[in-house]
Amino acid sequence: MAHTTPITQDMLTLPRKLPEGGKTNLIGLTRDQLRDALVDVGTAEKQAKMRVGQIWQWLYQKGVRDFDAMTNLAKDYRALLADNFVIELPEVVTRQVSEDGTRKYLVKIAGGHEVEVVYIPEEGRGTLCISSQVGCTLTCSFCHTGTQKLVRNLTAGEIIGQVMLARDDLGEWPEPGRPNPPEARLLSNIVLMGMGEPLYNFENVRDAMKIAMDAEGICLSRRRITLSTSGVVPEIARTAQEIGCLLAVSFHATTDEVRDRLVPINKRWNIEELLGALRDYPKASNSERITFEYVMLKGVNDSDEDAHRLVQLIKGIPAKINLIPFNEWPGAPYERSSNNRIKAFADIVYDAGYASPVRKPRGEDIMAACGQLKSATERARKSRKQIESEAGL
Ligand code: SAH
Ligand code: SF4
Questions:
Q1: Which terminus of the chain, N or C, has fewer Cβ atoms within 10 Å?
Q2: Residues with catalytic annotation?
Q3: pTM of the full predicted structure?
Q4: What dihedral angle (degrees, nearest 10) is formed by the CA atoms of 127, 132, 133, 138?
């Protein structure tokens, strides 16, 4: 299956050096990469590690974009940095605010590509839904992003940059001298549930999330970060080892026959192989529970039998089941299950001992809900016929 072939880093990721002036962007460099870059421009080996910590605090904790503001660095060192580096974020093209307070940003990245970022305010917390790719190489038949043909991996800087631009918009950089405790934040959680399959852009997602979790970086607990995958089985163990965040999986069906149609990556790694990888995840990552995402599609995957099969399948895995009412998009070949059907399904799951929250669609009026994201400028889209044939209709 050509469309599930992993796209490699070199095929999709831009070189880190910026073409103009050859200056390196500091945003998104790992600690080691930044250390090496500082040594390359003449920083003493002995001092480089300390400088990384100082610079990270300016960038990720104070939101500083100007080397001159980095006042604990000597003036000539600041000039050296300015000669060799830049601090660049993706550019916000449009910002929409939904009736329910959800904010959607259309963001431009190098090459003129666009991705969407969604901020969802909740009682006492707020979640930022970030993208890992422009479009997606996978073609889940119910997902709007999957109809977008153009694909490129985001760099680590473009991924962590989404968090930074949302903090800009929320005005959430601490005032000088004031602490910014994580528990009081507007942006307290990150979900990798925007455009793209994060595990097909593993290294960049990992490097960005390490910055998100670092005490001198964005400083969010790994328990406040959830990565959602459609089921890239070989990368699941690696996610536990190298990132250690919470995991969500786009499960969506209880037989291989239906899952093959909804989530075509199932043809490569079927339900049994996926469950095998998931059984080991909580232990390996020391996280509590896996979230099973389940989109409710009328007459497709929403029967009582499906609900019973689902709880049977995941037996023994510490889990919660997140039921997502299908969000419509133009040309979508499915309908949302009725509220009564969703409730009956949720009751069966609940009676089997699983939390089964139904995800409330947020920001629907601005097309910000799950699966509705797709760059507005990306006009090349599949025909309805193509979508339907892939959905097996
Ligand atoms: N590619 C990753 C992460 C992005 S999608 C993944 O598939 O897991 C985030 C969640 O939204 C996934 O569970 C996805 O299956 C779901 N989703 C996609 N399209 C949807 C739609 N139209 N309505 C509701 N949920 C949808
Ligand atoms: Fe890609 Fe996830 Fe959409 Fe599937 S559901 S097409 S993996 S973004």
A1: N
A2: 116, 370
A3: 0.90
A4: -90
Task: Determine the residue of 370, 374, 387 to mutate for testing ligand 1's pocket, defined as the one with the most ligand atoms within 8 A of the Cβ atom.
Answer: 370
| CA 224 – ligand 1 centroid, Å | 19
Ligand 2 centroid to Cα of residue 301, in Å, is: 17
- Buried-exposed string 4-20: b where 16+ CB fall within 10 A, e elsewhere: beebeeeebbbeeeeee
Phi, psi of 232 (to 5 degrees): -85, 85
Give, for 362, the enclosing helix (H) or strand (E): none
Only one residue has tokens 């044939």, namely 389
Question: Which protein residue's CA is at the shortest distance from atom 4 of ligand 1?
Answer: 193
Q: What is the DSSP annotation of 3-56?
A: GGSPPPHHHHPPPSB-TTTTPEE-TT--HHHHHHHHHHTT--HHHHHHHHHHHH
Identify which of 159, 139, 151 has the alpha carbon closest to the alpha carbon of residue 11. Answer: 151
Mean pLDDT in residue range 37-66: 96
Burial 116-135 (b: 16+ CB within 10 A, else e): bbbbbbeeeebbbbbbbbbb
For residues 13 and 204, is the Cβ–Cβ distance under 8 A? Answer: yes
- Which amino acid, one-letter code, is at 232? V
Whole-angstrom distance between the N-terminal and C-terminal Cα of the chain? 19
213 with 60: CB under 8 angstroms?
A: no
Instruction: Specify the amino acid at residue 331.
Output: G
For residue 152, the tally of other CB atoms under 10 A from its CB is 21
Rounded to the nearest whole angstrom, what is the distance from the C-alpha of residue 136 to the centroid of ligand 1? 11
Length of the chain: 393
Distance CA 225, CA 238 (A): 16
Q: What confidence tens digit (pLDDT) does each residue in 84-110 have?
A: 999 999 999 999 999 899 999 999 999
Alpha-carbon 244 to chain mean position: 14
Q: Residues 197-238: pLDDT tens digits?
A: 999 999 999 999 999 999 999 999 999 999 999 999 999 999
